[in-house]
User: What shape does this take?
Amino acid sequence: MTARTTWANWAGNQRAEAALLRPRDTDEVASAVKAAAASGTRVKVIGSGHSFTGIGVPVDAQLRLDHLAEPVSLDPETGLATVQAGLPLHRLNRWLEANGRAMTNLGDIEVQTISGATSTGTHGTGASYGGIATQIHAMELVLADGSVVTCSESERPELFAAARVGLGALGIVTQLTLKTVPAFALRAEEKPMPMPEVLARFDELTSVNDHFELYWFPHTQGALTKHNNRIPLEAADQPLSRFRGWLDDEFLSNTVFGLAQSLELRAPRLVRPVNRFSTKALSARVYTATSYRVFTSPRSVRFCEMEYAVPRETVVDVLRELDRAIEASGMRIGFPVEVRVAAPDDITLSTASGRESAYVAVHLDPRLDHEPYFRLVERIMDGVQGRPHWGKLHYLDAPVLRSRYPRFDEFVALRDALDPEGRFSNAYLDRVLGPVPA
Assistant: This one.
């Protein structure tokens, strides 16, 4: 019998004890699933554990893909890159760079596995760019009966439409083929701006920049804004000095934010002045670099996170209401609120499915009780039909989510057909999708 081991996610807010399985190839994944079917047990796949929800929490057995974590092939003519599902984004980015290719858009960290990032709907920012899952060309999955299938727009298109953001509910992804683009650079302009100006110019800022995002510091009228625009790789002639990179990305973005979190815990009265300091300490800078080095940055300060996708046209009102609600609550929030935008897509349960979206993310020290703050935020998001990020904390269940997603029942029907015994289910999936019918 396989020994049980204790597992915890990155934030430390999800923990479980389960048998640990580490298959070396797709055949061993299929064998593990067949064994689970024979014994009537459940198996959950996990990547880097960077989700804050219980989406990857195992019940009986946890299947880790750290042995299925290699590039497979790259077609230089089409740019199609096939990789194993457990490949971390940081290794994927560097492999693509070495071959003159790149992902067209990324989120702001690169520690997740490619299958974990896509299965939970991880996205970046850019009004003309979709989430990472929109870059999938084809997928290989192991289904609940142990069979291995592939899907794409032309092969099993109904499965492909859903499995790109599959929540781990439809099968275990073992391999993906990605649509890559020629390597490119970004010109990054980062600068503080008054929050009233950002809100007044939000549509302009998100339309004239390829990739725009902002960090608003609660209890202040200040924001840090990032304006990233695509340039040819050979035009990347303004690198960031090593010291400036350390000062802004490590010291200010991690050490100072870590201090703000500690103050939330130990001296809430100091949160407001520290937030004011942060808006001034993060000075303006302009630099150019290979795309993934601008898109992503290190995160050494641990936190719990909630993120909602809202209709893009509502986000300015949402942020104004959030400001009023935080001040009225008497809470002291040290971590900035992150705001991004994304293009609509056609993926069944993508948070951007069928609508232009803006994303509002809030964070809190994992040692604090996050529920009062997150429930306050969620009440505002409910008023605009917000859709929660599948890997980030929220309190919604299947009846509410059904009203937010026009194709919700389509996804659930596919899940019930592919996994009628709930082989890949757990408490989180039972809550957000409804339990598999007995």
Remarks:
- The first helix runs from residue 26 to 39.
- The chain has two domains: 71-182, 185-388.
- The domain at 71-182 is CATH 3.30.465.10 (Uridine Diphospho-n-acetylenolpyruvylglucosamine Reductase; domain 3).
